[in-house]
Each structure stands twice: as C-alpha cells, then as structure tokens.
Design brief:
alpha/beta; GMP Synthetase, Chain A, domain 3; binds adenosine-5'-monophosphate-propyl ester; 7-stranded mixed sheet; globular; 8-stranded mixed sheet
Length: 655
Amino acid sequence: MNDDIDVLLTETRSFPPPAEFARTALLNDPNIYLEAANDTEAFWMEQARTLEWIRPFTKGLEWDAPHVKWFSDGTLNASANCLDRHVRGAKRNAAAIIWEGEPGDRRTITYWELYRQVNQFANVLKGLGVERGDRVAIYLPLIPECAIAMLACARIGAAHSVVFGGFSPESLRDRINDSECKVLVTADGGYRRGQVVPLKRNADKALEETPSIRHVVVVQRRQGSTIQEAHTEMKEGRDHWYHRLMHNASAQCEPEAMNAEDVLYILYTSGTTGKPKGIVHTTGGYMTGVAYTTKYVFDLKDDDVFWCTADVGWVTGHSYLVYGPLANGATCLMYEGAPDWPEKDRFWDLCERHGVTILYTAPTAIRAFMKWGDQHPAKHDLSRLRLLGSVGEPINPEAWMWYQQHIGGNRCPIVDTWWQTETGAIVISPLPGITPTKPGSATMPLPGFSAALLDIRAKEIDVGGGLLALTKPWPSMLRTIWGDDARYVETYFTKWPGRPDLYFPGDGAKRDDDGFYWILGRVDDVLNVAGHRIGTMEVESALVEHPAVAEAAVVGKAHDIKGQAIAAFVTLREGFTQSSSLRDELREFVAQKIGAIAKPDDILFSADLPKTRSGKIMRRLLRDIAEGRALGDTTTLADPNVVAGLKDQYEAQES
Ligand code: PRX
C-alpha cells in the first residue's frame, strides 16, 4: 500500500469541469453540497419524492444503529417506476434498451415494448407459482431478458437473485440454496469470444442439488441455432421455454404495492470467509439512491445514449444498467460480449454506431485498451461522447489520462465513482459540472453521503492515509445479509468498537490537502481481480477440496491490466509430488469450483507456509514474495527460514 501512496502523493494535476459542460449541466451550483449537509434527511426525502409512490411516505430516516429504515410508511413498485410512469408520457416510444449480441444480432426495445414484456413475464412467474416474498434466481447472458426478468420479479414483489453467468454450477447451486429460490431463469447459452457458454448445461448440474427450485424457464438465445440442440435437455414438467410461456401470457399485470422496506433483491458478493454474502437491498431506499446518482453523476438528459459496460451479474449492472437508467427514462446500450471480439475496436465501433454519449466502464478495461493501442479508438468517430465514467477498482493516473485523451478527446469530464455492492449506489464521485477532477482520485462524497478517514481508534485523519468510513446512513445501503444478520453487524459495524454508527467498507484511502479521497484498495482479505471481487478464503476453500492439497494461502499480487492477480501458495498432502501438470490441474479445479474469474495466475508449491507462533498465516509476507519485494519484518514468525526458502523458490519459478 505504501507504494501506492507514494505514487498518488506525487499526482498534482487537476481539471476543472469543462466550461461548456458546466454551463449546460443539470447541477452546476456547488451550494448543493452544503444544502445536503445541512439537513441530510430532508435532502434524501426530496430525492425520494422524485419517484412515484403508491402511498406517499411521511417518515424519512429511522436509525437504530446499525439497523436502518428509510421512508418506511410509503409504498411503491420499482418496475412501475422504471416503466409505467414513462409509458404514460412522452417516453412511450423512446428506446429503453438498444441491445447488441456478441455475434452482431441487434434488438431495440422501446419503453412500451419493455413494459408489455415485463407485464407478460410477471404473469408467467405468477403462473409458475411465484408469490410476493418468494425468491427467483436469474442466470443469464447479457440479453434484454435479464432486465425483463428482474423487473418482472419487482412487479410481483418477488426478490431476484442474479448470478453472474461466468460462475460455476457449484457457485450457482450455493446461491440458489442460500436464499431458497423457487424458480430459475436461464438460457440455452450465451456468447463469449465466439464460444458458446452452455448456461443451461451448467444450470442442470446445479439443479441436481437445489431442492427449492420448482420450475426453470429457459430463454432460447438464438432461434434456429444449434445451441439448444447441442446443450439443452428440457426436463418434463420442470423446464419451460421462455418464448412458449410468453406467447400465452397477458400483457397486463398490476404492480404490487411494496413497502419501501420490502426486499427488492439479493446479490451475492465475496467477503472474508469462504461463503459469499447475500447482500439485501430494499425497494424505496435503493430506488432513491440509484435514481438520484444516475441522474446527477452522469448528468443524464433526454437525448443521451448511456452505456454501462458491466454485466448484470454485478451490482454495477443492477444499479446503472437497469434500475437507475430506467427509473430516469434513459436510453441504454447493452452489449453481450467481449471488448476484443471480433476485433479490438469493438467498443469504439459500438460507441460510434449507437451514438453513445456517456460511457461507464472499468479501469481494467481501460488498461487493456491502452495496451492494445491508440489506433483502435482513433479509427472511430467518438465525438458524441460527452462524459466518461470509471468504476470497480482504483484507476491509476496514467490510465485516467489516456481515457481522457484517447476516448474523451480532452473534452469529456471523467467521473471516477467509488462504491460497493453494499452501498447500492455511487457514494464518492465528482459531480461533473461542479467538482474539479484529479487523475486517480474519486474526489469527494456526493451530496447526501458522508465519509471520513479514520485511524483504528476512530480518530479523524485530515490529511494522510487511513481507513475509509461512511459516517451517516444513506437510503440505498444494504439492510442485512440474507439469513445472517449477525454477520451484517460484525462485518460492517464493529471495526470501531462502541461505534455501531460507523460503516466500514473494507477500503483504505488517502485524503489530500483539498479533502479529496484517493482510494487505495481493500485492507481485508478480499481481492479485486479485473474489477471482480473475490475472497481469498473462497479460493483457499476451493483449493483444499482437491485431494492433493493439504493447505493453501491465497494473496493478491499487482497486475498491470487486472489490477490484482491471484497467487496461491499450496502445501501438498503426503504422497503427492509437485509438477506443472498438477499446477494446471489445480488452476482448472478452482475455475470449475468457483468460475474462471477466480483462477490463480501463479501457484507455488511449498513444504510449509509462513506462520506466526500462534499459527496465523502471514499474508503480508506472501504478498511481498508474490510481488518480488524485499521481505518485510519476519521477526514474529515461528520459523523465519520458511519464508526465505519460499522466496527463493518463487523467484526460481518466475525466472
Ligand atoms: O475496493 C473498492 C473497489 O471495489 C470494491 C467494491 O466491489 P463490488 O462490491 O464488487 O462493487 C464494484 C462496483 C461498485 C470497493 O470496496 N472499488 C469500487 N469502485 C472503486 C473502487 N476502488 C477504487 N476506486 C473506485 N472508483
């Protein structure tokens, strides 16, 4: 972390909002920060009133730290906020989703069409016995049916649990079982780099051990294609083709009046144990947070084409591909596939052809684009772009500058947005018409949010490095962890003993003389690999399930494109010998257990792992080894020779 602080301390460039952008921005008066700080509850109530309520709320915040409620006497429906209010007005025939599949197939869906399809699918779900309060799992490629299925669940008051299509059958199974989903919505397949991802076949493996699932709905990804014949066996009575069910479904389904505090969705994310956490978001607060931040962080106007490149399997896809933009009546681009398929200019081709005006993507992608070369964006007319966003991991100043110059034509402000699955919505980010930007800094909390940098005793650090804390509750914060409220309290609200009002996100940060925040990354055992969150313990648990593995320790190592890569130190059981084929087998094993995103880059076999005298694995030293640094303090180790030996071995392997 110290290296990062050094780099960021030397970064002094600052860019005011471009004058033309500021002149026409939805927000250009800095007083909004003060107004929100003066009466934060009133500020949020005003934001919440921009939604359409079935029964208007009178209550704002109820804070019984660390449990919270917002707008608790109001009722509303999230799908009605994303659809019904737009189809009654001028947006009826506007494009809601412009979709492009990886093979090049295209669909444009207007608000009216989306409204009808969501109503139909809501009736399909009801017909399959889904009731208010039930859970529905969604395991799909990035196709419009993701949004349709999510909004249909919201319409009837069922909570959705979207599982990223890159996760393994076991990961899907565990997530389905944790929240006892009744129905699974999947597809015969999706496309990634020209290959078919056999989702239904993966789902079938998961379904061998998911007793709660009664029905499976299967979207036919391409009619007449060979996917379904090759990969899809339909189980009589349980499995149903989506298009057949939709064909007979009525396009009228009254939206349920949901309490503001009713669950909208569950989304699993990695923590510091082997078991992912089901983050619970509720209806009123979440919708308030995403509607407000989408509108003002992205300065969203009627003629914008907004492209958030995230998959719907992650929170960014939930908040800024579906709920936030649709609540604002925006036109969104949705692209299924890889950025380098069939060529490395696919993103810029998409931007040009669809007239994208706002692009929201991840630093890992930006670093890959830099490496692929300036010629790819240079081939395309990107002059419609007017705002760029970054999310998911710290963006290094070099990538920030490249993004500004080569994608933004030195004309577009960049919003570096810090937030998490748990926060539901963007928390720290510039307002593009007001806040000056500095390459590598997410700047300051948005109006309505409060952060501080604290030391371990909760003392505020004005300038310097420390732990990031969110110091006031906000509407879109998680309410609990599904089925494990004790873990909710323990994970987020016990960092500073006796202060259950302080939320700990798990990130370290630096604050500069202007009070700007520079996020340095996780300080817990959570990795951020290419913007994907992975727990070291999850990978370790997967490794030790292999018969050859006695013990495993996993750390993150700096990687120039992915931000972090996974390095695993493995001790073998008696009778097994290290070999490069076993190394490959273990990497593949982790991919099968969790998903390809969790595959370790390096595996080092070792007779022993460095441990303290009390038996705790010294990850700090393993990180030093994995990143090729001089070893830090080894005096607390039970056997300092272990680590010196490991370092030699690692270096021998690397060379
Ligand atoms: O470490 C922070 C990093 O991503 C973590 C949250 O991961 P996840 O819940 O998967 O959500 C990702 C998308 C919001 C955070 O704890 N992170 C996210 N955005 C940034 C970031 N780190 C630095 N700068 C960001 N803009």
